[in-house]
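In the laboratory, one determines a bound structure by crystallizing the protein with its ligand and collecting diffraction data. In a computational setting the workflow is compressed into a single prediction: the sequence and the ligand go in, and a structural description comes out. We illustrate the idea with flavin mononucleotide.
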Amino acid sequence: MALARCFDVEDVRRLAKRRLPKGLFNFIDRATEDDLARDRNRAAFRALTFLPRTLVDVAERSTECVLFGRRHAMPLAVAPAGPAGLLWYRGELALAKAAARANLPFTLSTYSTVAMADVAATGATVWQQLYFWSDRSLTDAIVDRARDLDFRVLVVTVDTPVLGQREYLRRDRLLPPYGPSLASCVEMLGHPRWLAGVALRYLATGGLPRVVNRPPPASGLGAEEIARRTSLCPSVTWDDIARLRQRWPHKLLLKGIMREEEAGRAFALGCDGVVVSNHGGRNLDGAASTLGALPRIVAAAGGSGSVLVDGGIRRGSDIAKALALGAGAVLAGSAPLYGVAAAGEAGASHVLGLLQAELDRTMALTGSRTIGELTRDLLGPGQTEDCHGA
Ligand SMILES: Cc1cc2nc3c(=O)[nH]c(=O)nc-3n(C[C@H](O)[C@H](O)[C@H](O)COP(=O)(O)O)c2cc1C
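The predicted complex, in structure-token form:
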């Protein structure tokens, strides 16, 4: 199947599955434990239905919107996702270029395998994602570099004090115990385009991709101490966010908020937005669906900051549903990753184009000419409570 024969994101997902070794495909397609939270996110979108307006002149309509001071093609940002560089040679650059071409923001993961300056050079609107490492000076260095590169939005992920339990990564040797198994070698050989176009290309041009933007900890430390300092910090609190607010002069978002009182606290601390997120279901398998958590958070925010949402965006109509529930915009993680895995920049562009075309069609079919007209009344009574698969 070629990209031109991919008529929706699910088609692109199938193409990605054919192109990638099984372990890597699982890495982007699966979530954690039994994938309950991932499936709950999707189920919540599926359960929402529209009561469309009719007899509205929708001949002229626009998906455009303003996000954090910049006009974009639609209310969607590419979500941060660490392993894009394993799916395609310099995959983050492919994603950033696709986002730039589509006039959408691109969020760069702290675990990027491409230098922040190279991503800036694509001309994309770059939002920088931030994890806190145990050595705070390493985290501060990323913040300062983002400021120097004139990135205007910092997205702090607060839902990952430790990584989720992802047994499939262990089975596929992408977490300890590392190392190729007979099965993984057979998988790689069975995917020659990925092997030649990604793995061997890296080996021929300086080695396998690694996390490049995290500065090395102070010299002279032993391996154990280096591992401790560069590990995700499990003791991040609101005090860290308050300190970060002092350090970072531009827009600050907290990603991974699921509780309304925390959204209120974020805005009181001077944050500009929250992303209602359960990490695509990749961390806590018992987490509620993000769409289920959204309405209460929107109500609690009361307009004092932006409320974005992610988790399960596979259709343009999903974007419309999230907006009708009060979100200012969505982030999409897996969908553009399927695109980059299937066909690099062209694949990611294809996915973003599909989502925009579907959003535009949903707007027409619901009698909405502008993004602002995607309002709650479109969902009908009883659907705007926090009951959608939560
Ligand atoms: C393969 C993969 C890697 C991810 N890496 C990160 C990351 O480095 N930082 C982060 O904040 N979120 C990360 N996420 C979560 C996404 O930013 C986003 O919250 C999630 O993918 C949204 O759900 P969706 O995949 O259903 O769109 C990752 C998601 C995927 C699928």
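The domain at 3-370 is CATH 3.20.20.70 (TIM Barrel). Keep in mind that any predicted model is a hypothesis to be tested, not a measurement.
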